Amino acid sequence: MAARTEGDRGKEETTLVKLRPDQTSDPARDASAQPGTAKQSQGTEETTPVTLRPSQTPDPARDARDATAQPGTAKKRSGPTGSTPEGAKPASKKKKLDFSHMVKKSLQVAVVYKDDPKSEMKEEGKAHIWRQLTQLIDAMPQSSESTGPQFERSGLVQGVFKITCTDQRSLTWLKEAVQRIQPHEGHSFQVMELSQLNRLKSVRVFVPGEISDPKVVLARLAKQNRGLDTSGWRLLNRQEKEHGQLLILGMEDASLEVLRSMGGRAHLELSRVNFVLPDQGQEETS
After folding, report:
1. Is a pLDDT exceeding 60 seen at residue 7?
2. Within 13 Å of residue 51, how many CA atoms lie on the same side as its CB?
3. What distance in Å separates the CA atoms of residue 17 and residue 262, rounded to the nearest whole number?
4. Phi/psi of residue 206, nearest 5 degrees
5. May I ask the CATH class of domain 104-140+147-197?
6. Could you tell me if 270 and 152 are in contact, meaning their C-beta atoms sit under 8 angstroms apart?
7. Distances (CA, A) of 231 to 28, 140, 234
8. Which residues lie below 8 Å from residue 284, measured CB to CB, with a gap of 6+?
9. Which residue has the higher pLDDT, 95 or 232?
10. What's the rounded Cα separation, in Å, for the pair 284 and 200?
11. Distance between CA atoms of 32 and 47, rounded to whole angstroms?
């Protein structure tokens, strides 16, 4: 039994040697290598990607920090989605310029004949208006707390006496002052915006029979024709004929459309009159 036990033990030792050859005694190997070197080398080969180069390990937080640290990446991500493009800034500036331009245009007016705004004004009429307005300025009391009306320029341009006011206060003064100007050759005066003056369309109508005041004629047209508003019409010219009078009137597009819907014919007094309407593409008179 003792011999059998020793034999079995020898088999176990032999089996262990075969299964773990790296633990067998080798003086040459042990002398050339320090203890633990083989194990460290083996471990290094297996763990090099993780242990020696940790920067390659995926890390979302670190990637985000690295991205913001790069100058090119930071510039591309600086603006949120939907931010205002650079091209929108000039548009905002343009709106301000357009508004300023509109304000300046509203301060450009014309002094015209009240009964005939489109009639050409001569140099004599312009000089009369200039003298009258200057006298009204001279009559104003001098005060250190207030300033009189101010104007940028004035002049006669193609038969229209144009005045550019510096501000709204001066425009208000001009409108009131013009009403106090003495008539010239039977004409009184009024202030009209250039935009209003230029958008009137020229229309001709011959009124037969007894010659009446043009204002009376316009009032009758409004009373005898539903929807025809003549309050904004202006007398541009008047010619007396043998059997009546020819009126040249200035009116806006709204009145033109009403007359076109009536076929250019309107009731007046005890008959009808025919209007000579401009073409659809006629330019605005100035």
Report:
1. no
2. 7
3. 124
4. -100, 125
5. alpha beta
6. no
7. 126, 35, 8
8. 198, 199, 200, 201
9. 232
10. 6
11. 24
Residues of the chain with CATH 3.30.70.330: 104-140+147-197
User: b/e per residue, 51-60, with b = 16+ CB within 10 A?
Assistant: eeeeeeeeee
Q: What is the predicted pLDDT for the residue at 14?
A: 44
Residue-wise pLDDT tens digits, 255-285? 999 999 999 999 999 999 999 998 744 334 4
Beta-strand pair 271-276/201-208: antiparallel
Question: Is there a contact between 248 and 238 (Cβ–Cβ < 8 Å)?
Answer: yes
Beta strands in the chain (DSSP E): 108-113, 151-157, 160-165, 189-193, 201-208, 234-241, 244-251, 265-268, 271-276
Quick one: the chain helix, strand, coil %, rounded to 5?
Answer: 45, 20, 35
Report phi then psi at 127, rounded to 5: -65, -35
> Higher model confidence: residue 91 or residue 114?
114
User: Six-digit token pair at 169?
Assistant: 């206060």
Q: How many whole angstroms separate alpha carbon 159 and alpha carbon 163?
A: 13
- Cα maximum dimension of the chain: 166
Cα 227 to chain centroid, rounded: 35
Fold of 200-276: Alpha-Beta Plaits (3.30.70)
How far is Cα 268 from Cα 244, in angstroms, rounded to an integer?
Answer: 13
The H-assigned helical ranges of 107-208 are: 123-138, 168-178, 194-198
CA–CA gap between residue 88 and residue 86 (Å, rounded): 5
Report the DSSP beta bridge partners of residue 109. Answer: 163, 193
pLDDT of 225 strictly over 50? yes
Bridge partner residues of 164 (DSSP): 108, 153
Reduced to 3 states (helix: H, G, I; strand: E, B; else coil), residue 69 is helix
Q: Virtual CA dihedral for 38, 42, 45, 46, nearest 10 degrees?
A: -160
Token pair of 68 as six digits: 């913001």
